[in-house]
Design goal:
329 residues, alpha/beta, Rossmann fold, 2 domains, seven-stranded mixed sheet, six-stranded parallel sheet, 14 helices
Length: 329
């Protein structure tokens, strides 16, 4: 089997019945479940899955030989996520990896014994997933993208590429508690950059379209798109509307910029999945989540799309371009 096909088979596997899962664990094969709140055909989701699987491979884990991975593509519907999470718990995996609060919150309610490794959760202490960053204290640990005040940096980035902006709408998802902390950090930073901030709540595709349409007529406006599964899944819609209304926007991840967005500043999501593989490896070898400290990202990437900047009539300074980790021309 070609390596590309191998990854596709693992990443696209469906949840198997409990008896099948137990059979697959016979002979020393360990069982790891992953809950991903994206669609299986999402290219970025597949990139994250590949990074996780490669991380495990580098640590000596091989599908069918000493590990079985169930990659569960849940989408962003809360009811479906709860159902998939419950089905997975019934199979009694050795470790579960959960992405964002959308998956970890229901997992936390369903089990206090199965180890859970999370990624892409800001402020896990405030959200009650761990007792502290250094000593999680329960069955949950993982990797957080950044301290909430860092999200104020998005205001600075937007003003750097579009200095005329004095009115910013922040697209956030109120269902996810960390989003409120990110929003507050941006609001606190706004006076320093002489901008006004509007909170633009969106929990689904229709709401996203509505808040962008409503804001489009604001003079000298710009947008900040916060990281969550809803904005990630609807990035083509968001980027298309920004182009239609000629709105400068800053995004949380570089894949938005590769798909036509103007500028982004944030972590590499696939990098956190590769890190998660290291904790899965340690837990499978006997470590307890309670003793594995939550780790924060230390690397943040700046990406700029010059083609989009030109279409918006924006000139990116040479000094700012030199700071970029990725420039798309």
């Amino acid at each position: 089997m070609r390596r590309r096909d191998f990854i596709k088979v693992i990443a696209g596997s469906a949840i198997t019945p409990p008896l099948a899962a137990r059979a697959q664990r016979s002979g020393g094969v360990r069982f790891v479940g992953v809950l991903d709140p994206t669609a299986e055909n999402d290219a970025e989701g597949q990139r994250r899955a590949t990074a996780f699987i490669q991380g495990l491979q580098e640590l000596g884990w091989r599908e069918g030989r000493n590990i079985h991975i169930e990659y569960c593509w849940c989408g962003t519907d809360s009811a479906n996520i709860r159902k998939v999470a419950a089905d997975l718990i019934q199979q009694k995996p050795d470790v579960i990896v959960g992405e964002t609060t959308l998956t970890v919150a229901p997992l936390q309610k369903l089990t206090h014994t199965i180890p859970i490794v999370f990624v892409h959760i800001a402020d896990p202490v405030e959200n009650g997933f761990v007792a502290s960053m250094a000593k999680p204290g329960g069955n949950i640990t993982g990797f957080t993208p950044a301290e909430l005040p860092l999200y104020s940096k998005l205001v600075e980035v937007l003003k750097e590429v579009a200095p005329q902006v004095n009115h910013i709408a922040v697209i956030y998802n109120p269902v996810q508690a960390p989003q409120l902390g990110m929003l507050r950090a941006i609001q606190a930073a706004a006076p320093s950059f002489h901008v006004q901030v509007n909170a633009a709540s969106a929990t689904n595709t229709d709401e996203l379209r509505h808040v962008i349409d409503d804001f489009a007529s604001s003079p000298d406006g710009g947008m900040i798109v916060l990281p969550n599964p809803v904005t990630n899944a609807n990035r083509d819609l968001i980027i298309g509307l920004m182009a239609r209304y000629r709105l400068p926007a800053v995004y949380p991840f570089a894949f938005f910029v590769r798909d036509g967005g103007l500028v982004s500043y944030g972590i590499d999501p696939a990098g956190q999945l590769r890190q998660a593989a290291s904790y899965v490896d340690r837990i499978l070898k006997g470590a307890q989540p309670a003793d594995l400290p939550v780790q924060e990202s230390t690397k943040f990437e700046l990406a700029i799309n010059l083609k989009t900047a030109k279409a918006l009539g924006l000139t990116i300074t040479r000094d700012f371009l030199l700071l970029a980790d990725e420039v798309i021309e």
